[in-house]
Amino acid sequence: MNTETTKNKNGFWTLRYSLLNAAYFVAFCTIHAMAAVYLIAQGFTNTQIGVLLAIANISSAILQPVFASIIDKPGPLTNRRFILGSAILIFAGSLMLYFSGGHKAVIFILYALIYMIQFTYQPVMTALCFEYQKAGCSIQFGLARGIGSASFAVTSLFIGRIIEKEGAGLLLIIDMIVMLASAVLIYAFKLPDRKDVSALPGTDVDGTEDNSASQEKAHSSLREFFQTYPAFTVYLVAVICFFFAHNMINDFMIRIITNLGGSEAQLGYANFLQAILELPVMALIGFVFKKISAKSLLIVTGTAFFVKILILVFAVNMAGMFFSQFFQLFAYAVFVPATAFYVNDTMDTLDQVKGQAYVTSAITIGGVFSNLISGSVLDHFGIRAMLITGTAVCGVGVLIAFYAIQKLPHHC
């Protein structure tokens, strides 16, 4: 295959990876963003929802680095195979849940498993991109990830109104369809033949990949890994704080919105707004990195998370909610590519899947604490007390992030 033909074929990698992201985040909307809506429809209380999501998040936080360590090592479990297996398992779980007959114990177990599995393979999706980039495949991560957010936004825009008419069971049908599409997409998502790769940039002329990674040492133990990356380790604590607040808003957004006079339809609009705002930021983040380092952006994004929830403390109507969602431009939209590129830039190759997984684990742990605390505070003290709690925790996270990024070494 000549170089020109290879380049033309290579030009479709961003499109293919974008479709993977789009499918993932449609499912993310139905499983994660609409979790409270579905579970409330099944008769769960706020506290029960918090416990279910906490269990799912704890399990995923434990499993993410475990599977990442296995994937980082040469062997049969690869990023691609892990994603394929996850999509199949989520489809099967959704199918069983659809025919569960409304038994709360069965719903609790199956929904927790589905929620856990989808969160567990999120960092592997990121690692997949950088793996293929290093093999010479031209993938624009920011654009593809932004398209994922746009798919979440479009789904959010329509799903709320549809659920009002058709019921929450429709979420499972959509999830099953999307997981089938994901399985097909990832099955076809294969690296070029070695003879084709030889014509791509970033590989040796004989078609073999760069062996520099084989000269590196994988830091498999927690202690060794964290000693090697001090700034990253402390920053993970800040991430936990940021996503305590972020998950609080997302998991109980329907309660916040109804308190401000809205409904499921406004929930869809709010989710659409914050997600669609992510697309231009993620698509153009490469240009931003030319002016501002990923390290600096980690502090910027933490501050935006804080401002976003602070606005909700004082909101009195849906205008306040929509104004808060605007700060998604600088919060989650910047956080995702900034952390992904920070890990890729500062960590050894054999540590990068673990690095991505630890970020997602920190996000998940933040969700765990949010699930355990938020539902209880909401039930006993109300919306405002819950939001004030989230604001305080997020503020602490901003201080920790500043200390980690500005004062500590990034690689020892």
Task: Describe the structure concisely.
The chain has helices at residues 3-10, 13-33, 35-41, 46-72, 79-98, 104-120, 122-134, 141-166, 170-187, 194-197, 222-228, 230-251, 253-259, 264-276, 278-283, 285-289, 294-314, 318-326, 332-346, 352-381, 383-407. With 412 residues, the chain is mainly α.
What features would you describe in this structure?
- The protein is an all-alpha fold and 412 residues long.
- It contains 21 helices and no strands.
- α2 packs antiparallel against α9 and α5 runs antiparallel to α7.
- The protein is globular, with a radius of gyration of 21 Å.
- The protein starts with a helix and ends in a 5-residue tail after the last helix.
- Element pattern in H and E: HHHHHHHHHHHHHHHHHHHHH
Poorly predicted sequence stretches spanning 5 or more consecutive residues: 1-8, 195-214
* CATH architecture classification name: Up-down Bundle
Strand content: under 5%
Span from first to last CA?
Answer: 43 Å
Number of domains: 1
Largest sheet: none
CATH topology: Growth Hormone, Chain: A
Quaternary state of the chains: single chain
Q: How big is the Rg?
A: 21 Å
Question: What are the defining features of this structure?
Answer:
412 residues, mainly alpha, Growth Hormone, Chain: A, 21 helices, 78% helix, globular, disordered N terminus
List the helices and strands and how they pair.
Elements: H1 3-10, H2 13-33, H3 35-41, H4 46-72, H5 79-98, H6 104-120, H7 122-134, H8 141-166, H9 170-187, H10 194-197, H11 222-228, H12 230-251, H13 253-259, H14 264-276, H15 278-283, H16 285-289, H17 294-314, H18 318-326, H19 332-346, H20 352-381, H21 383-407
Helix pairs in contact: 2-6, 2-8, 2-9, 4-6, 4-20, 5-6, 5-7, 5-9, 7-20, 8-14, 12-17, 12-20, 12-21, 14-18, 17-18, 17-19, 17-21, 19-20, 20-21
